[in-house]
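Task: fold both queries, return tokens.
Query 1:
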Amino acid sequence: PMNQSKSADCDVAPFNAKVSADVLAKAQPGDLMILPSLRIERYTDQWENFGISNMQEKMHGPHNQALRKAATEDALIWLEPFAKRGMNIVFIAPPPVFQSPTFRCADWFNRHHPICKSGLSMSKSELLALRAPIFDQIRTLQQQLPKVYSWDPFEILCPGDTCKAMVDGRPLFFDGDHLSNYGNGLLYQPFYQWLQKNHLLHAN
């Protein structure tokens, strides 16, 4: 939930409220709001592995279930003014996540570092199971608010049975979950075409 601060010295609620008010003051019906947050747990950041031994249990456990329920209720409150303004709200579905940061493990001389021990690939079926609760949240919001959409980049980034952070020697991801410039480039045209197909772009 957005009203829960990450730490005592990081109260994000006032900032979020000011940004929302600024957008609402400037927005026009038909404007596009893109919401690309990860929404699933991370295995690692740039500097350390978080030591999550069972991500399925963590994502589907009672604590995270309660957080997702509260976050969905919170999202309805935050998003309703934008929906009433006539904006198109697009959630970007979660992309693959990896257990090692790509930029630290791509070169041969770093691959024996402990942070790289889990490699740069993940089972597609495992990642799809991790994402399942997020789609339940999005469907709930779509049922209760108008003009809420979801675009899924997963199959573009992971077309096979194994998801890979490196493809043909090029990094799709920077760390364990942030796309690289190359990865973003692969998504640009499919996303643009999807927006056109769903009539979500203003006419020139």
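Query 1 returned. Query 2:
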Amino acid sequence: MDCFRIGLFLRPHGVRGEVKILPLTDNLRRFSKLSDAYIEQKDNDYRAVKVTGAKIAGETSVIVKIEGIDSMDDAEKLRDKYLCVDRAHAVKLTGDAYFVKDLIGCSVVSTDGTELGTMIDVYETNANDVYVVKGSRMLSAPALKRLLHTVDIENKRIVFDADVLEEVGLFED
């Protein structure tokens, strides 16, 4: 199953089984329309659940109610697990936006033909996300539109503009 983590269960909220989660998505409003979801048990092991309610609790958290989770003790069992959706229920992306999950594992090269390595992570920062590429040297580069020459998710290949990379890339020796 191809699932996306959209939230990390933090702790119970109240005594009726609601759970506070840390959203792992840019769009908090997506939770208000969410019904079909999964709880990640272990890597690639998911339990289907119904989300029966959700409310935004500030800028950095959401309170959700899961069908069958009716007490504080039930909610506590979800702590540190992930709330997920399958690809069919993922938020539809526009234009040149990509799921981090799809970027991880892509081979990365520059327009001058240099093999840079494999995308291993994307860090969120206040200004820009940061791409982390592991090759013969570690590379960190801000996720700028002008850096991305080509993104081919289907063939797991990303091409960085060599001139922009020279300007913004940070290589670790």
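Both queries returned. Flag for query 2: The longest strand covers residues 45-56.
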